[in-house]
Amino acid sequence: MPEIRNFTLNFGPAHPAAHGVLRLVLEMDGEVIQRADPHIGLLHRGTEKLAESKIYNQSIGYMDRLDYVSMMCNEHGYVLALEKMMGIEAPIRAQYIRVMFDEITRILNHLLWIGAHALDVGAMTMFLYAFREREDLMDVYEAVSGARLHATYYRPGGVYRDLPDSMPMFEKSRWHNEAEVKRLNKNREGTVLDFIEDFTARFPKYVDEYETLLTDNRIWKQRLVDIGIVSPERALQLGLTGAMLRGSGIEWDLRKKQPYEVYDKINFDIPVGTNGDSYDRYLVRVEEMRQSNRIIKQCVDWLNKNPGPVILDDNKVAPPPRTAMKSDMEALIHHFKLATEGYCLPEGEAYAAIEHPKGEFGCYIVSDGANKPYRLKIRAPGFAHMSAMDELTKGHMLADVVTIIGTMDIVFGEVDR
Amino acid sequence: MSITASTALQILQTELETSLATAIQNSTLAFKELTIEILPADLLRVAKTLRDKHSFEILIDLCGVDYLTYGKSEWDSDVSSFSRGVRRDSDRLFDFDSSSAPVEYDGKRYAVVIHLLSIKNNHRLRLKVFCEDNDMPTIDSLDSIWNSANWFEREAFDLYGILFSNHPDLRRILTDYGFVGHPFRKDFPLEGQVEMHYDQQSERIIYEPVSIEPRVAVPRVIRPSEKIEADVSEAND
Lengths: 417, 237
Prior knowledge:
The complex is a heterodimer. Chain A is mostly helical. Chain A has helices at 47-52, 60-64, 71-86, 92-121, 124-145, 178-184, 192-214, 218-224, 232-237, 243-246, 254-257, 278-305, 322-327, 329-340, 381-387, 389-393, 398-408, 412-416, and strands at residues 7-11, 23-29, 32-39, 154-155, 158-159, 348-356, 359-367, 375-379. Chain A has 18 helices and 8 strands. In chain A, strand 2 (23-29) and strand 3 form a beta hairpin. By secondary structure, chain B is an alpha/beta fold. Chain B has one domain (5-70, 84-185): Beta Polymerase, domain 2 (2-Layer Sandwich), CATH 3.30.460.80. Chain B contains 5 helices and 9 strands, in the order αββαβαβββαβββα. The longest helix of chain B is centred in the N-terminal third of the chain and has 19 residues, at 2-20. At the A-B interface, helix 1, strand 6, strand 7, strand 8 and helix 15 of A face strand 3 and helix 4 of B.
């Protein structure tokens, strides 16, 4: 009888279902996974080391590039850590803006997740649907920050600027005639807030569309139900957070349990799974999109009624307005100081965490009193999730690996940092 | 809200001081966060107590810190001269050509910082452990207590060269296959040690020492916050 041996399979680093640059070395017995050894770090850019050589504000842009599908949430974690050490708090309007954009970002992230996850499992349409809605939200990003993805919008002490009064519009071109442009621009005629409000009115219907396609879909359920089950005890042991933890039935959400900004003033619910399998995590995330929509709606209502400053009036931290710089010597000096030297943080260490779309995203800053961090550690949720890969895939079939990567919502920008 | 949270931490602090007693070297409450410092020898025992008695179920994060240049600035802010010269301490401190020579540092250079979270009691705790030996920093692995420590420890080993005894699989994780050195140490230059390119003639990848000149764009300045306030009040007088 011939000797039967396990064989090793290299999954990635250029496999489309590996969600970026994951090299997964699988030890297989036939089609069954015996051991999964993820090799990460192919996208390691040394963000934390780079931050040590830069003044604090210059690193905000690097945060966007960590988890590049939930940009503003990364910024939020970093900015909160800075604010904690400086002992400052953003003005109330800035806090509402941040919460609104955190939730917009959560929808952006979950849309990409649902699109990519469904595509991996074999449903092409979802990807197209999800990207249709992402386009609208990225236009909102563009309207406030000028960039569709890497916004660099949050600042310690507030946000870079107030919400603009107009939305960018489509223009007539070879591909769109006047009537079509008019139709496309119909909901863009008001302010940015009007556009977002219009989106929140449309979005629940879109989520229904996704659910019609997936929730009771036979193939979808065959591929997801009972795949990658995590018990609550194991989820805690493995350091899982976010939807990975809630899918296993543990009700833990930092927005409720350790509220930051104005989350304690807003009504929303936390969906929790029961079985801890991929299907439950799917249901949790879909419900999170609906809840995020609810939060955005409440923020829009509040922001429409309450104008006010969006950044602290403390020129030691936030630069003075441009107009003041042209006429006021002191404002000019402040701006010069902030641009060339930045601000110093008091000596000490602090950790601030937020409920990122993927889980708990935290920044740990050690400061020796300088204008640059002495050490910055970014706690990325995906890193802990990735480390659970071996345990989750063991005993499953090769095709299920794709489902499990999808359900973990992996983005390599944050795993490799 | 925050008042109750900080009193809860104070209660935790006194609780820990009784249950861990001698193990705690130092405990501080700053920025509404509790940090306890322990010796490497006590780590496993303390961790077990924290998990079982104080229900810290999740190890949120574990990372290394290198204290080699802590508190060193590149530009004196106290001297009242008009000198714009940036002191290139970082250049003089370390001679990268003789990287084998260990950098002198008195005191414990490497620390491992652990962030714990208790879901049951809804609070956090920071655990800080300084490694005894600067040449071969070693500490017990926490993998047996929290499985999530596995990869975080691999990362700390990769980036700082901290060894974790009894770790099941202590390999490099973030750097390239065959990488030399521990890049997040303070004596490792930001530009790296080597650069590589593909050589058409010899048809292979060639590694060379980096050709980038290190440059300080914005000097590192330490300004005590009291000094700024004093300056401001002086100017106002």
